[in-house]
Amino acid sequence: MFEGFCTGRRAALLAGIALGTMGGAGTALASGFMLLEQSATYQGASFAGSAARADDPSTLFYNPAGMTQLPGYQFSINGSFIAPQADLTSGVSYAGGTTGGNAAASVLLPSFFATAQIAPDWHVGLAVTSPFGLSTKYNMDSVARYNALTTSLKTYNFAPSVAWQALPTLSVAAGLRVEIADARLSQAVDFGGLVAQKLYPSALPGYSPGSHDGVGSLKGDDTAVGWQIGLLWQPLPGTNVGFDYRSAIFHDLSGSVTYQNVPAGLPIPPLQTALSSAFAGGHATAKLATPDTYSLSLAQNVGAVTLLAGLDYTEWSRFKTLLVNYAGPAIVTQENWNNSFMVSAGADWRVTDTVTLRSGAAVDMTPTTNANRTPRIPDGNRYWLSIGATWKPIPKLALSAAYSHLFVDSTKVDLPGLQANYNSNQINILSAEATYSF
After folding, report:
1. How far is 337 from 291, CA to CA, in rounded Å?
2. How deeply is 204 buried, as exposed, middle or buried, from its count of CB atoms within 10 A (0-12, 13-18, 19+)?
3. 383: which strand partners?
């Protein structure tokens, strides 16, 4: 009797913990948990025209075909400081709790790129980036604690690629994407409510909803491989059209589940045995897929100005379900994310031979809705405004900087046992990049 009850509650907990592998506001700045912030040069125009321009080796991330426009040997180092704000301004939980405070964490995101021209029409490159990630944290007394405490997703992507200038006006490229994913997640466990529910209408002193919280944690990692293709076409002098596709990468995370503060010494031996067994921890696996992305871009030179436009499409609909395996039957949770678009426009202005200024704006749609949003994903539509500049103190060195402010829609979480509202949502990004050629 007690065993079946505890196993069911444990399954629900594991499904909730595992939801954190699928998204979060935190440091994730494109829709869902994707990170576009790999280049100060491209960020300065809100990533408008990103697949159609080839300013420096960071083109490897946005369209590797662009490296055919980079002569000799070049490398770039970029760092982006990302400061998001997602305030849980109000909320109600079945067991009570506090609101307030910023759930998102600030981070520094580095990236590295190198390209080499190995023949007149052939180029190779290597990109080292973190294309997906998130970080959120709630207090142990938060109204959101039973859905999320800490969430950390880090990815490390190593992408070698090759590009060929097939025609004077056409370049094509292909590459591999070797990705390491590391996820660490936790949430509170309402042991007080669990015991009280099972003993009702009787009661055990000290055990009521919210009176005896524990913590469940899941950690796991995996390495998996995807691929990327790109095309850069110049239909007319001064006009570039670019297309880039990055495949989904399917991770099988392997790690462990642990529990803290599990009740001990209960005066009902069968219940104590069931609790100790069900929440003993052990090996666990979870499936995580990063989405396919499609980018179509235009760059049009008009004298000293380059006009930029972009359309990006992300297949977040791959998150129909979430599968978790842990010491028993597989747990399947519905996700039901939507595909999303990002539309961007911007311009570069070459003030002198050594100074370029740029600006841009973008609208980035969230894949979540009120029906599937969680405290790990207080994600809303984002509206970008960016400025940036590049300075070449010497011909072989380019220094770039960019600043972006993202206005983020207020969002709502509406789950069984939790209603929460997030307001004053915004993100600030400051990036710097150095490129050297030889």
Report:
1. 11
2. middle
3. 363, 407
And the tokens for 411?
């969002």
Instruction: Give 2-437's CATH code, choosing from 2.40.160.60, 3.30.1330.60, 1.10.287.3510, 3.90.45.10.
Output: 2.40.160.60
413, two tokens: 């979480």
| Distance between CA atoms of residues 259 and 282, nearest Å | 10
Residues 362-389 as b/e (b if ≥16 CB within 10 A, e otherwise) read: bebbbbbeeebbbbbbbbbbbbbebbbb
Stretches where the chain sits below pLDDT 70 are 1-32, 200-201, 319-324, 327-335
Report the b/e string of 115-128 with b at 16+ CB within 10 A: bbbeeeeebbbbbb
pLDDT of amino acid 2: 46
Report if pTM > 0.85: yes
Rounded to the nearest 10 degrees, the angle between the axes of helix 2-18 and helix 191-199 is 150
3-state secondary structure 85-118: EEEEEEEEECCCCECCCECECCEEEEEEEEEEEE
Please give the single-letter amino acid code of residue 1.
M
Q: What is the pLDDT of residue 201?
A: 65
- Cβ 243 vs Cβ 226: under 8 Å: no
CA 121-129-229 angle, 5° bins: 40
Instruction: Check if the beta carbon of residue 310 is closer than 8 Å to that of residue 294.
Output: no
**Cα–Cα nearest to 39, from 29, 50, 28, 30:** 50
SS3 of residue 2 by DSSP: helix
Report cis status (omega within 30 of 0) of the bond before 395.
no
